[in-house]
Each structure stands twice: as structure tokens, then as C-alpha cells.
Amino acid sequence: HRGAAGPAGMILRAFAPSDRDWLIARHRSLSGAEFGFTPDFGDSIADKLDAFLAREDPVKRLWIAGESGQRIGSIAVSGRDGSAFLNFVLLEPSARGRGLGHVLLQSAIDHARAAGFPEARLETYSCLTAARALYRAHGFAIVDSDPGWRRFGQVFDRELWQRRL
Prior knowledge:
By secondary structure, the chain is an alpha+beta fold. It is 33% helix and 38% strand. It contains four helices and eight strands; from the N terminus they run E-E-H-H-E-E-E-H-E-H-E-E. Helix 1 packs antiparallel against helix 2 (40-54). The longest helix has 16 residues, at 20-35. The protein starts with a strand and ends with a strand.
């Protein structure tokens, strides 16, 4: 998907080291503004991102979505316990409502399917209602939940979602 054009001129390209700080900062900022998460959410993303980048995994991919020369989103897929695991799903508010989140998610699903995974999984939180609707629209369903999770200054359910490929 390097340089692949999506709707309205969105481009998906491979993650570059120069994207690291942006990805962490946008997760921190958007989660704070939209869900009231404390800044340590960004620290959690940094830890997960660094572990993702360091892990040897021939099927892992991290894409950055761009439009008009600006970064507008991200998504990643990697192998974990025999499943494809999706992570770092982000779409800037200015890019929402035009189907771009569907393109991001479908790109990761297509990659996971082509890599031969039998299923895709992801972790999300009950307070992320728009993301959860997107996952549901793509055939994901909750397979495990940890209710009353207290992190990032909030209380929510931590959820594991899955779909067959």
C-alpha cells in the first residue's frame, strides 16, 4: 500500500522514523480532548510503538495516512499469538466522516488476510464509541472484556474484539 491513493486523495504510505513523535503526540492530544485521558496515555502509546518497531515480525506493517501533504491517520497490523493484531488506529477529526477510517481498517484487514492469518484482533475501550462502530461495521465483535478498568484518569471497559478473515 505504499503510496496507494484512497478516497478524496488520501495516500497510505509506510511509517517512517520521522512519524514517531507525531503519532505519539496525536494519540496523546486527541485522547485527552475527546475522552479526557491524562497525558500518560501518550506514554503508553510510546511504549507500545517502540515495542512494535523493535519486534521482529515479517508481516508487521504500520501505515500513515496523508492528505494534501499532511498526516491524517495511522493503522498497524502485526502477528500476535497466531492472529493479526491491529493497533495505532487514528484518524484526525478533520478527516472523519468521509469513509477514510473504513479505508484504513480495510487496508489492515486485507494485509492480514493476504498474510494468511485466520483472524484479526484488536484492543479498544468502551468509551471509544466511533471506533467501536467502525470495528463492528467491519465484522469485529467483542470476545473479551475487562470491566471497570481504571487508567488514564478514567474508568472504562477494556475490550478485545475479533473477526474471522
